[in-house]
Each structure stands twice: as C-alpha cells, then as structure tokens.
Write a structure and sequence with these properties.
By secondary structure, this protein is α+β, with helices and mostly antiparallel strands. It has a domain of about 290 residues: Alpha/Beta hydrolase fold, catalytic domain (Rossmann fold, 3-Layer(aba) Sandwich), CATH 3.40.50. It is built from 11 helices and 38 strands. The protein is globular, with a radius of gyration of 25 Å.
C-alpha cells in the first residue's frame, strides 16, 4: 500500500510539473508566476507610447497617425501640431494602413487588419462622414494595401485570392465593383505608384531581396512593360512615377553595391544617378505634388540622414537641423511645402515632425508619453566593428550601463535575415540596462541589409553558419573587454534571429549562460515545408531549396533541433500560435527535444498572436517573464 501511494504521489508530481498554465490567452510551461516586484518595477517601461505618420488630410489641416492608447495600435486624427489625438478606429486587433482618399469629396481612408496575427489582412474603407467602415476584400485571402489612384476613384492592392499562393495585382474601388486583376503572372507582386493621369500602374516582382523587377502596366491595353530590362540581376527598392509622367524615380543597386536613387527617363530609356555620391542605401523617398522637390533618406552605417533636392537640377537644399535618430514615413502634404516624417532614437520614442521647406522650420506634431521616466538617463549606444573569423568587419551597437563593470551581456540578433538593427527607442533594452545592469550588444551579422549587396548575400544557402561564426567573433571581443562579463553572456532574438539564438547555443553552449528564442526557426526543412505557401518561393533564394536532396541534407545537418543535444543551458522559447511565417510547430519541436534531453526550457505560446506579440497584455507578460528569466539565469 505504501509503495502504491508513493508511485501515485510521484505520478501526480510529474503530471503537475508538466502541466500547462494559462494566463489570459497565454499558455505556459515551466514559466514561474511573475512576482509583484517585477511587475511594479517594469510598469513605467511598459507604458511608453510612440506615434507613426499615416496620411495627410487632403481637405485641409491635420493628419492620420498610428499610436496605442489601450491594447493595440489604432488610427487617430491630429488636427494641428501638438493637438489632441482623436482616436478613430477601435478594434481588438492592430490596424494598419490609414491612407486618405485623394478625392476630397470622399472624406475617408483605407485601412487593413487581420485576426489574431494570422496576416490574412483584409482591406476596409472608413467613412468619416458617418463613422462607418466596410470590408472591400473577400474576407479569406491575404491582401496588401497599395496606392490610391490620383483621382481617388480606384486603388491598387496585392492579393492571393487567385490560388492562395501567388500574390498578384488587383484594382478595386469604393463602388463594390468586382476587382480587376491586372497582373496574373505567378510570383510575389506589389503595386507602388500610379502615373499622373492614372493610365498606368508601376508594379514590382519580388524574387529575393537581391533580385526584383519593375514593370508598368497600361491599364487600357493590359500590356505589361518591363522597366530597364538588363542581363544583370538588379535589386529595386522602390519606384514612383515622376509628377509630370515623363519618368520614374527608383532605387536600385544596378552596377553598384548600394541601392542608389535614380531617375529613369521613359522616352530616352536612360537612367540618371542622383545619390551616387553617397556610398550607402537610399531607404525611401517622397515627391511634392508640384514635382519641384524630392526628399530622400540615406542609411549610413545604420544612421538615417535626410536630403532635399530641387528636381530640375538635383541640387541639394539646406534643411533645418533634425534630432538624431531613425527617420521614416516621408510624406509631403498636397501644398508641396510641408514634409511629414517620424523620428525616434534610444532616448526618444517615435514621434512625428513636419518640415516647412520654404521657411526651413521644423515643427513637432506629437510628443509621446514615456511612463513618467527621465529618458535623459537612457543609454545611447556606441557603434563598434569586430573582425570575424575570415577578417570580415561586422558592425554592432553596444549599450553599457552607466556604472562600473564588468556587466553581464545580452547579445541581440535581429530577424530577417535581410534586416538591420538601427538605434531605435526600446524601453525593453533600457529596462535591462538601467534596472538589471545588463549590457546589450545589438549585432548586424553578415546577411544584414544596409551594407551592400555583397554583404547581404554572404549568408545565403551553404554559407548559413558563417553568420553564426560572427557571433563567435563577438564572444571573443567580449572576452577581451574588461567592462563586460564573459561568464554572463546570453543571446536573444526573434524569427531568423531566433534561429541564430538556437544555432549559437548549439555552437557556443559552453560560452553562453542562457538564451531567449522568439518565433524562431528550429529546422529549415520543416520551416520551408510549413510556412505559408505564398512565402516559400521568396524564402528559398535565401535559405536554400529543401526540395534539392543535397541542400535538404545540409539544412537538416545545421538545423538546431538536430543538434539540441549540445544545449545544456536554460532556454526560453516564445511563440505566437497563429504565426503564418514561422509555424508554431517550429517552437514545439524545439521544446520537445530539449525536454527529452532533460534540458531546462521555459515555453510560452500566445493563442491570439502571430509572428510576434502585438497586444499589450501579452507583450507585458512576455517581457516581464524575460526579465525574470535574466534575473534567474544571467544575474545570479
């Protein structure tokens, strides 16, 4: 009887230890309850806001912006500089888009949203005259907002409504007409611009970040004409018809390492280089409605710089001094005088500013709340470069606490992989630095965008693990830095950065103390087979085609779940259940193999999220849990 009771007690203990705990829509395993002290300490950092520009009001003053007051980011109207933010949309899910119709008689805008992070976005029209909204797409396919026609009678968008796989171009209107398909070729297509007379639409076919094609479609004949055909593989970043319709402004890396701004003459078929004197990518541009001025952004070693040109001779015009930071959202008002942009930096959350290009004045339109924190105490990063195993220089940004070291370190690895870390406002980083005493090293390993197309392709296919070896070089650099604690180093990253976290643990387990993997790839073969169909062909040029036996064998060989026996340090896996990019099965199989090996793994899945957490209640709990994880495994 006593033996029976002992067996029963042991069975109950095992069952309880493996029991899933649910908090709201979060289901967790092995994640301790968040102490009240942690919740209280993070509260201010969790209650910061930011604002991003969406659209100028075409009928007068004011603009649409996006910000969060409750659980999710919604659209608000701001009538004047520092005016009250009047919330317009009130949905449980975050709202994207927010593009005013150019026709002043309409008084409305397009927006998009999905359900639970599944990224099957639907397009809606919001009518400001009566506060109503209606869905303009089928409610089932994945749709992406494109530009309004200049008259406001129609809008272009991309959709996989045809076969669920190919993202093709359609034209819609507000009358409820059947969508007109204008691109039926297979592939991933997006619309970027309408010609001034609305007779043509500029479209881009995306193969990979280093291979894209521009075409324009004659809407009367249906003819699609390739722009600037070339035997060279070219990456176009963006494109727009000039306001006089005689040419097209575009960014491309043709004959260069970087995506420069160019002007393509539709008559002569000649291209004029505009930003060739800047050896960096142009990340975006905008034109005035009268076509006399053009503004563009250069991304210079991760730092944004803005330029204003006179289009008749491409002469640069002096602008007022701007706050240093990450700049985006360029958009001229229809008066051809006021330029909206959003700026943020590690001490200032994203806010909207407007430049009066005539008076050369900068006016602030929003000032986002920072939870009562003194952001002057927030830490600014230092740009460093580290030589990797093959001598390649790898950039990173180092945040260090303002007190003596040596400090524990969190190595942050961005996703993409064709993305780039730039110094932006992160209350999470600042909490780790100021409250926990952690240093944060935000890396841009090979394969990151912003450093030229050669650097961008250095991790493709069979070179995948070379980017992991870059993390080894940063570990060596930490070893040689007396301000940093080489015995207390962790890795943190999401999506592809999550793969990098897992791979770093399999390669450098003895040199790392802990790791946090957010929506990460654990096996490239299962990832490519299970990611949504519309994504597979655009991912294979980067990772390799798993249908080729030799590549499949290589991908299986390097995949973290097949090397999980090398991981003995604590791992925290975070996932959205509805993730269409990196399916939840990637997280589950990694969790299961770590558990089978007797490893220490925390696991959190949000049932109402996708590729990352967008709802505040989930995000707060997740960040608090990560802070608790650091305290337990990095600070003790």
């Amino acid at each position: 009887m006593r033996m029976w009771k002992l067996i029963l007690l042991l069975s109950i203990t095992v069952l309880f230890s493996q029991e899933q705990i649910q908090v709201g829509n979060l289901i967790m395993e092995n994640v301790p309850e968040i102490p009240e002290a942690v919740k209280a300490r993070t509260q201010q950092y969790r209650n910061v806001r930011s604002a991003s520009f969406r659209s100028w009001n075409p009928t007068g003053s004011g603009m649409l912006i996006s910000t969060r007051f409750a659980e999710t980011s919604q659209l608000h109207f701001v009538e004047k500089p520092m005016g009250i933010r009047q919330q317009i949309t009130f949905f449980d899910e975050p709202v994207g888009g927010g593009r005013f119709c150019p026709d002043p008689q309409q008084h409305g805008f397009l927006f998009s949203k999905d359900i639970g992070g599944n990224e099957y976005y639907q397009i809606f029209y919001f009518d400001l005259k009566d506060g109503s909204h209606r869905m303009l797409t089928d409610g089932e396919s994945r749709n992406g907002l494109g530009p309004w026609s200049n008259s406001g009678a129609q809008f272009a968008y991309t959709s996989n409504m045809g076969n669920g796989t190919d993202m093709q171009i359609y034209i819609g209107d507000l009358k409820g007409s059947e969508p007109r398909q204008v691109v039926s070729e297979p592939g991933y297509w997006v619309a970027t611009s309408w010609s001034p007379d609305d007779s043509k639409v500029l479209v881009m076919k995306y193969i990979s970040i280093t291979e894209t094609y521009l075409h324009y479609i004659d809407l009367k004949t249906g003819e699609m004409i390739e722009l600037n055909p070339s035997e060279e593989t070219i990456a176009y970043g963006s494109g727009a018809f000039s306001k006089d319709g005689k040419g097209i402004y575009l960014t491309s890396d043709e004959d260069t390492e970087f995506k420069h701004l160019r002007y393509y003459d539709l008559t002569t078929k000649e291209t004029q280089l505009v930003s060739g004197h800047i050896p960096w990518d142009v990340s975006g541009f905008a034109q005035t409605d009268d076509g006399k001025h053009l503004a563009y952004l250069s991304n210079e070693d991760g730092i944004s710089k803005i330029h204003l040109l006179r289009t008749k001779d491409f002469r640069e015009i002096t602008l007022p001094e701007l706050p240093v930071g990450d700049i985006g959202g360029l958009s001229f008002k229809n008066d051809s005088r006021h330029l909206a942009l959003a700026i943020d930096n590690p001490r200032t959350p994203g806010d909207i500013f407007v430049i009066d290009i005539k008076k050369k004045q900068l006016v602030r339109w929003t000032k986002s709340e920072v939870g009562g924190l003194n952001t002057n105490k927030f830490i600014l990063p230092e740009l460093i470069h580290v030589d990797s195993f093959d001598g390649l220089s790898i950039p990173a940004f180092l945040f260090k606490p303002d007190k003596p070291g040596p400090h524990p370190v969190v190595i942050y690895i961005h996703g993409g992989p064709e993305s780039q870390y730039t110094p932006y406002f992160s209350s999470t980083f600042q909490y780790w630095i100021n409250e926990l005493g952690l240093a944060v090293l935000a890396t841009n390993v090979r394969g990151s965008d912003g450093y030229g197309k050669t650097y961008l392709k250095m991790d493709n296919g069979y070179n995948r693990e070379n980017s992991v070896y870059d993390i080894g070089a940063f570990l060596d650099w930490i070893d040689d830095n007396p301000d940093l604690n080489e015995d207390k180093v962790a890795v943190f990253g999401g999506s592809y950065g999550g793969y990098m976290v897992l791979a770093s643990m399999t390669h450098y387990n003895d040199r790392l103390a802990a790791a946090v993997d957010v929506v990460g790839i654990s096996n490239f073969v299962t990832f490519l087979e299970n990611t949504k169909a519309y994504r597979r062909d655009v991912r294979r040029p980067e990772y390799g085609d798993e249908r080729i036996p030799e590549m499949r064998a290589f991908l299986e060989k390097i995949s973290p779940n097949n090397n999980a026996d090398k991981i003995t340090k604590p791992l925290f896996i975070v996932q959205g259940f509805n993730d269409p990019r990196v399916p939840v099965t990637e997280a589950e199989q990694m969790r299961d193999v770590i558990k089978a090996n007797g490893g220490d793994v925390w696991y959190m899945v949000a049932m109402d999220e996708g590729h990352g957490f967008r709802k505040k209640v989930n995000r707060d709990y997740y960040y608090n849990a990560v802070s608790l994880f650091w305290e337990e495994f990095l600070l003790k």
